Amino acid sequence: MFDNLSARLEGVATKLKRKGRLSAADIEAALREIRAALLEADVNLEVVRRFTDNIREAAIGSTVSRALTPAQHIIKLVDSELRSTLGGDSFRLTFASTPPTVIMLVGLQGSGKTTAAGKLALWLRRQGRHPMLVGADLARPAAVEQLRILAETAQVDFFSESSDPVSVAREGIARARSLGRDVVIIDTAGRLAVDSELMEEMRRIEAAAKPSYTFLVIDAMIGQDALATAGAFSEAVGLSGTILTKLDGDARGGAALSVVAVTGKKIAFSSIGEKLEDFDAFHPDRMANRILGMGDVLSLIEKAERQMDKHVAEKGAQKLAQGKFDLEDFLEQMQQVKRMGPLKGIMSMLPGVPRELRDVDIDERELARTEAIISSMTREERRNPAIIDPSRRQRIAAGSGSTSMAVSNLLKQFKEMQKMMRQMGVGPPSATKRSASSRSAKKKGKRR
Ligand SMILES: Nc1nc2c(ncn2[C@@H]2O[C@H](COP(=O)(O)OP(=O)(O)O)[C@@H](O)[C@H]2O)c(=O)[nH]1
Ligand SMILES: [Mg+2]
To answer: pTM of the prediction?
Structure first.
């Protein structure tokens, strides 16, 4: 899900990054592309309109932080708009002071209610709770059996009986209380469409069970029409939030992005597969980051904004862009980065870092050695590493308590890094200015 939307938003970001300053026309062009991307993903029209309006307003009304490039600034605005479209802050489940906490699941047939009931039970059990599943979908005998099997797999208690849905709910809660179970999850019957009989049954169960939470289960694969139908539930019962299922599907994601606007409620949980474990609390910020496809680069931007000395960061970025970034800047930036906390945390936030690398411990001692070597260089050597000949290398090695080999390795790595950064076009001002100045820097380097 969201693959296409992600790719298109990433495209917008890439285009923006190539520009230094953003004109009003640049912003409008980006907004048009964002709008097209959202519409193509089948996002509700009204949601799309609000989305782009908010970004426009924020882009015009705010001053760009010195630590961010204009492109980063827009990306940050898109991210925060995605996040608020997805509900803003995460939903928080709290438990009744006198157990059991009663949770009722409602929704259209096939939306994934019964499966979600089983998943939620397992999720709660893993949080140290003792849930009981109650099967109040008596429309089909198979539904009760489906839930009983899920309860068995999740290793939680189960209750149902062949009476009527209201007394099953009431009896189930009484049973849970007597067994000392602290959460009751009631699975109810769905229909293919909202009908008055179904709504009436839901209301009667609600009146009898007095649930602390009523969640509307919504299949993220459904289209806008079906979503509006599902939204009708929010008027019939006192909805607490929604559970979004089938996020693993290949739908365009429009329903997922419209659900908060349509129901007026937060997404509490999401389900991303058929297995019982494929279920978790929903976090709008993480989902927004995922859609933007930038790892947690936004948290990195924020962290950088909070903790980096903005002036130093900006100076570094500028020199980088001009192709004048030298070892002295490197040392300065390294010390900045170190102030930001354990390297491991920073690594894990960088985009494109493979998951398996994120958990690797970074050798902070190695970093200290690097710092020592650069510190043993003269200012001149740092600014122009080309002058470091074997005798200087030996002096630096002795001064930093390392070896001549280590010094030349570091210089080699630094050269590689410079090359890589130039290729990636890291850093602000305009693209034309950058290539012009890096060309002249290269020429100067040759003359020396
Ligand atoms: N791929 C996938 N399938 C799901 C998910 N949740 C439910 N399903 C499937 O959707 C179908 C309907 O689910 P069910 O719980 O019976 O829906 P109900 O009618 O609302 O109770 C079943 O085949 C489930 O296995 C999910 O997150 N991902
Ligand atoms: Mg069911």
So the answer is: 0.68
